């Protein structure tokens, strides 16, 4: 049986595979790590995730990292705090990676008691066509301002193929009077559901729209006995605790 932390990591792996495949990128998976390489200069979607505290083939992994560096492809490295061993710390030092953020790993045991939405201000639609995908992209990119990462994400979504995205990745857009203002993503993996990309445009924050989208995502789980996992910032974790989520670990992100 997977630990709670492993549920979080394995669901993240599933998301990586789905969203890398949607742009015909490359997944490299070994016993101690998994790498998603979109061949696009975005550290949002180019990820290295630790799967073990022990690095069995250090030179092999360094070669993979060097591919990102040589080709000027930014990437982020995600390590469960429990896996942050001397092996990983040395690799991080050797590759000049710097800590960027820490996320709380959280888990809800089931959705048997998830109630209806608190409010119905949002019109929430599952992304199923090009127009809705453009709305999702508009909200997603609004959080990155005028940055190089936003430019890279424009390229990512330009290459994105919804036909290549499996049905277990469900994207949702929330609108107010036909204006897209919020997004949400639900990943259905073998052992858990994962919630990602609960985003609200700056001008609409603090009005409960993010919580409404979040509760809607919880209501979309088909297997109500399957756990739900997510990663939260220090500021956001209390919101999820109100829905019954519990802290199960910490993920450290290096860039």
Automatic annotation (TrEMBL):
Annotated ranges, domain N-acetyltransferase: 122-255
Record Gene3D superfamilies: 3.40.630.30
Keywords: Acyltransferase, Transferase
Domain of life (superkingdom): Bacteria
EC number: 2.3.1.-
Pfam families given in the database record: Acetyltransf_10
InterPro entries xrefs: Acyl_CoA_acyltransferase (IPR016181), GNAT_dom (IPR000182), Trichothecene_AcTrans (IPR052523)
Single GO molecular function: acyltransferase activity
Protein name per the record: GNAT family N-acetyltransferase
Lineage: Bacteria, Bacillati, Bacillota, Bacilli, Bacillales
